[in-house]
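Give me the fold.
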Amino acid sequence: MKLYIAGKVSKDSSFKTHYWRDGFSAELSKKSGLKIINIDPTKSAAGFKFDHTDSKLIYGRNCYMINMSDVVVVYLSDDISVGGSQEMLIAKYYGKPLIGLAPKGGKFNLAKKEIFGRVYKKYVDPYVFIACDKVVGNMTELAKALKKGDWKKKKVKNIKIIDESLRYYKQNFLKQDKYLISQ
């Protein structure tokens, strides 16, 4: 199974290395019993001129890798970068299954969260919930999800999630949203 694992690249991240995907993939292979092929944006073959200042090279290469993967897993660490969220949207553009690993207790997956004085239980960040085909809280759950393939049983979400969400808002809430009506 070819996996593109989205998430932090910086060695200053919570992983303390650029190459955390190697260990992540090995652990996932061991836990799932699947042969995981790590489609890794931090790797290149010897001799490839990898210019990190060439924005189209970086973006295009990552798009190519996401498009060739079977599944995209996004590691939603509390310090995830803008690149990780872009990779989530690119996965939806290509109609790829997207599994979010949002650690329990992290900012994207909380037992409860207070927002403007209101407490919500079993909170999953809306951008994570809408984009991901499945959200798991740890590596064991991720391994089970990949092995079981239960995300395959439902239609994989695609870029239409944007228009569907807009339509849902307009049909159900716009008339009540006095702030936006007055703009």
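The beta strands are 2-6, 37-39, 71-75, 98-101, 109-115, 118-124, 134-136.
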